[in-house]
Give the backbone structure.
Amino acid sequence: MRKVWVESAILYTRRNEINRYHQNNQSGTRMDGTTVETKEIELEKLIIGGTIAQKNQYDMSLVRVEYFKHPLYKTLWSVIRGLWVRSQPIDLMTVSTELEMQGMLGAAGGHVALVKLASEPYVNVEDRHIQILKDIWERRATVDLLEKALVEAREPKAKVKDILQSLDKHTFELCSGTESKHLSKESELDDVLDSLLTPDSNPCIATPWSGMNKLMGGYRPEELVIIAGRPGMGKTALMVTGQIALAKDGIPSMTFSLDMGRKQLWNRYISQMASIGVKDLEIGREFDNEERAKLVLAASDLKVMPLWVDTHPYRTISDIRMMVRQMVMKHQIKVVFIDHIGKILPDKSGSREQEVSGIVQSLKSLSKEFGITIVAMAQLNRGVEYREDKRPMISDLRESGAIEQEADIVLLAFRPEYYQMDTFPDKLTPAANTMELIAGKVRNGPTGSALLRFNGAITKLEEMPPPTAQMATFGFPSLSLTN
């Protein structure tokens, strides 16, 4: 009851802020007799007219169509930005020609109106003008957002938690500078074209394993990667090794460990960093001075590295979404690891298949919403244990239908050594200290598999020394790792 009262008080306070904004900004006039809205339109005219008159001294990549309020200036900026993206000159002739080609010249007032717009004596358009334009748009968007929340809050059947979560989501978009996902077609195509025409614009982040990079292309933004396996296959080792490698490269990431305890998990990070066996850390044996120095250095490095770990055992998908949103805004995290899907609590109860389907769909939506990679661990069912061939298949995934449909990549972890096998099923590849990652699904590439060296003492996955690090083909199309 207390929580509901606090949330209601927050909404009441926000409503008063909106009222004050309207009183201060919408009803009155300035001392020079102009309204606030008139000043805003004059600023938009200055930016558009000054740009056409080639008096622009600002970074055009910072300006969005959404920043403009007046329909005419929205249209003109869309055309101007299109010319800029294509590296074409921006002047009266090119703008009017582009408008005519798109059939919008009449709506813009024709040639006469454009000549008049471009011929006024403008000052140079600078970054400070763009910042004012953006500030006005942010204020306008904030008022719209809060007014919408107030309308929803007055609905008797509305859930306060849902309203606040929606506010949190859209507030994040405003504070972080990200656009709403409902962008105009022009803005979306401009963004895509920018990335295509910009050198070294590959957004993929390399994993520490060359075989895995060639298999899945690295960590790609907006992708959901599932790493599945039976217990003891090394999924957590893969996660910890991957996160440490990202942090050493200065790439922020976060792990949600719903399965392993706080001390147990941190022991694995320290073990890898200090190269001291994780079993030694767990039993708490005495360490010599050199080992003590390594442990202190490892812990000190981990404190300042851009990696974060949450070990709370009970997290709903909404909890994870809210924490990811905060971490993206505060630390610009690029990759999120989750161990594991089966431990995430559903927001809505139902059959287990429905719950897992909702969780996986939410994880995929989360990756797209924040432009990050989500790497989630998953369990395989016990059917693998009763087969003669222990090599897993994608159908061994628990609730495999939803996971296979939503995931961009599904990797299956396999260590024959765990089953006391001397070789892989090909009877040639030694099984000792070796993990195979089988690509059960790769949405944007071929399937295959890669071999990694499993260092069980410090639970770390390393590169296989050549020529062993060849792509295994056990039933998959051949895919060589050599250039």
Remarks:
- The CA atoms of residues 247 and 305 lie 6 Å apart.
- Residues 127-153 form the longest helix (27 residues).
- The chain has a mean pLDDT of 80.
- The domain at 1-201 is CATH 1.10.860.10 (DNAb Helicase; Chain A).
